[in-house]
Structures are given as C-alpha cells and as structure tokens.
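pasting for ref
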Amino acid sequence: MDSFDPHEPWDPPSVWEPGVKCPYDPDYDGMDIINPVPTVADYYLTEREAHHIRMLYAEKVTMVDRWLGKVLDRLKELELYQDFFIIFVSDHGQPLGNDEHGHGIMRKCRPWPYEELVHIPFIVHYPGACHRRIPAFVQTVDVAPTILDFLGMTDVAGNMQGKSLVPLIHGEVDRLRDCAIAGYYNFSWSIITDDWSYIHWIDGKDQGDPRKSMAALGLASMEENPEVWTCAAGSLAETPEENELYDRIRQKKGSVPAEESLAATTGRRT
C-alpha cells in the first residue's frame, strides 16, 4: 500500500472543514500556509507561522494514522492480522524551519541530509514476535532482504546490500550495524553513529555551472546530467562551505542548544 500523504500540501481537516481547529495549534488565527515555498525559513516566515505549518503537518500525520488504523482494524476483524507481515516505512522526513526543526530551511530545498530529513519511521509487525522498541540502526535497503528472509529465501537475502532484520526482530542480536549511512546524490555523504553525526560535502562544482541552474529548476535528470541531480524540483543545488560534525549525545541530554551542537560549521545556523 502507498499513501501520498502526509506529503504537502498540508491541508488536513482543520483547513477546509468549517469550525474545525487544528488540534495541535487551536489558538492560531493567521493564514493556513498549506504549501510553503521551499526556501530558507528566515525572512520568509515568522516563527509563529513556521510553528503552525509544523502543526498542520502533525495533523496530516494523524489523519494518515487514523486511516491506516482502519486497515489494520479490518485485518483483525477478518482474523488475518496475526498472519500478516507488515512493514511501515516512509521515504524521508521533512525540514520545517529553524534549529532542530530544519537547520534553517523549509522543506527539502537543499541537498542537506540532516536528521530531520533522513530519520524515518520503521515499524514492523512480525507474526509471533513481541512488540518492542529496538534502539538499533536500520535502513530502507533492509526491507527487501527482511521480506525474503521471512519467506525462507535466506540465500538470496544474504547476497543483497541490505541486512535481514529477522534476527533483530527475534532478539537474537542487539544490532546489525554500528552506523547508518545517508546522503544526497553527488552532494553529500553522511555517517550517523550513536554518538556522532558527520556530514562530508562532496560538491566541488562551480556554483555558476549552468547544469546546476537546470537542476535547481527541476529540469536536469540523472540520465542527462549525472553530476547534478537534486531530486526535488525547485531545490537549490548548493552545500555549506565546511564539513559538519554533531554531538548527538549532548544534544539528546539537552546540554547544548541545537544551533551550537556542532563542530565544524562557521557563520551559518546549524
């Protein structure tokens, strides 16, 4: 199954149903910005407007959760739920403003693989397994080998780039890898561990390269220009000047503000 939502435009019931207020921001009395321009947040949105956009996004997520719940309830009514192997996963997160909400950008308008973009839900219902939260790194490339392993095709699963999560689900191991890898094609490499998040910017091309302008307008494709693929139409193909290192432990403990959580960036909001 695929759900396009909670993709923008973020137009949950509070936007179009008379008398309904956003449950996460009922006191807001400004304009509902359901399809914000992908750009830097400063000088475009007030923090109050950016907060309401985040709350509309949350309401849209709740709406999707409600309808997905109806599917699961129906499976239970048909006594099929316990026999189903279900993996719930998203393709990406969403930068939504300053600091920990989006490192200063609104929507995925820059090829910057920060955690708010690359950290996604990954929920598994495995027949016979106990439900629990597992603090281990998994990646979307693990979906296919996990399904094949479940079907008994272990030889095929073992030859794939991803890793089967079946041993993790059964509690046979605590983790399958020591880090997660993220990136943005030809712009960045990122490695995330329990303690650190490091981003290496690999884009060394001239900012005036006309191919980059095409990519920014969504006119370039990987086939036409394999060096300048930005994925999102309207995105600006640029990267920060310096590589970046973030202390994830200190930030989780709240001992360092999000805008100071890191290490190699200068002169730009982190």
